[in-house]
């Protein structure tokens, strides 16, 4: 019960990493304000999860909605102890020679401005709270090119720098700020933006699960709970001397892909692209 009596705010909580982190904090005694744009998913999460989980609708591209979320969490409980800036999606897919300005801006709003505004509007409610901590989701895509589309990678690299700047700005208030860099984690993020439905979506999810289990040196797929455990550690007293840093939780993906030692393993990103292409062709044929 590391978080007994604590108030935790999580964005993008209805699925994947956010849902697993919500369940973990709630199990360990926190009151969790689980927010998302997905109202049905968020309400189901709150109903199905053990502990005090309160769903709040919040689109992180809307700063006013972020402020309302933070204000509500504080007015219901007296303040905020932990903020997990997690919401996200794949963003603009085009490469730098073709990306449209609006798509670029939307990606930055979703993945980078959202984190800045989350901090901006949570901090007034975090000052003076013992052990206050912010965790921001970056990605292995921030390590270097080749893990994701360009706009996503740039936004996630921005999250790392924002984390360092915020850590120095907020140290005077006793608020720690760290980031987490997940590797290939088996969630809906890879299929939610594909314009396919029903059976094909299930096929795509199965293909992703298969790919993710072969992608990295550790011989299993990354799961949302792997990230939730690391987030809870960063937010806990055990990490009280850590701020302005980042944890890579990727089963060794950035050290060397599985095919560096396993000749049977698929080349992950070319396999992902091939799968998406197949899905697009199947959707067009239907
Ligand atoms: N899954 C991975 O391999 C991986 C790797 C690195 C980083 N990440 C990051 O982890 C975070 C969580 O992703 P996930 O893998 O759990 O994906 P997911 O698709 O399972 O969950 C993302 C959640 O964010 C919500 N969301 C999307 N846009 C939103 C918005 N505008 N406002 C509020 N909520 C919004 C979605 O509704 C969804 O519930 C993202 O920031 C993602 O970029 C994921």
TrEMBL record:
Keywords tagged on the record: Oxidoreductase
InterPro entries: NAD(P)-bd_dom_sf (IPR036291), SDR_fam (IPR002347)
A GO MF term: oxidoreductase activity
UniProt keyword annotation of Cytoplasm present: no
Family, as annotated: Belongs to the short-chain dehydrogenases/reductases (SDR) family.
PANTHER family given in the database record: DEHYDROGENASES, SHORT CHAIN, ESTRADIOL 17-BETA-DEHYDROGENASE 8-RELATED
Entries under NCBIfam families matching the protein: PRK07231.1
Name of the protein in its database record: SDR family oxidoreductase
Native organism: Erythrobacter mangrovi
Taxon lineage: Bacteria, Pseudomonadati, Pseudomonadota, Alphaproteobacteria, Sphingomonadales
């Amino acid at each position: 019960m590391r978080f007994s009596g604590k108030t935790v705010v999580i964005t993008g909580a209805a699925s994947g990493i956010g849902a697993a982190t919500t369940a973990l904090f709630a199990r360990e005694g926190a009151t969790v304000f689980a927010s998302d744009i997905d109202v049905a998913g968020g309400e189901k999460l709150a109903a199905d999860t053990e502990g005090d989980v309160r769903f709040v609708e919040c689109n992180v591209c809307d700063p006013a909605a972020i402020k309302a979320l933070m204000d509500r969490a504080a007015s219901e409980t007296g303040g905020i102890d932990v903020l997990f800036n997690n919401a996200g999606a794949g963003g603009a897919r085009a490469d730098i020679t073709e990306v449209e300005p609006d798509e670029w801006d939307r990606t930055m709003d979703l993945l980078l401005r959202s984190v800045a505004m989350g901090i901006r509007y949570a901090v007034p409610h975090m000052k003076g709270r013992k052990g206050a901590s912010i965790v921001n989701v970056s990605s292995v895509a921030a390590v270097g090119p080749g893990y994701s589309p360009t706009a996503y990678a740039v936004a996630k690299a921005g999250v790392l720098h924002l984390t360092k700047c915020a850590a120095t700005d907020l140290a005077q208030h006793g608020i720690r700020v760290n980031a987490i860099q997940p590797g290939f984690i088996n969630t809906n993020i890879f299929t939610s933006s594909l314009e396919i439905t029903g059976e094909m979506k299930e096929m795509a999810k199965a293909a992703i699960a298969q790919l993710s289990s072969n992608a990295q040196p550790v011989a299993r797929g990354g799961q949302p709970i792997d990230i939730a455990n690391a987030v809870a550690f960063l937010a806990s007293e055990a990490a009280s001397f850590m701020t302005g840093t980042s944890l890579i939780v990727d089963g060794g993906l950035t050290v060397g892909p599985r095919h560096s030692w396993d000749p049977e393993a698929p080349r992950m990103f070319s396999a992902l692209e091939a799968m998406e292409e197949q899905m697009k062709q199947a959707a067009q044929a239907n």
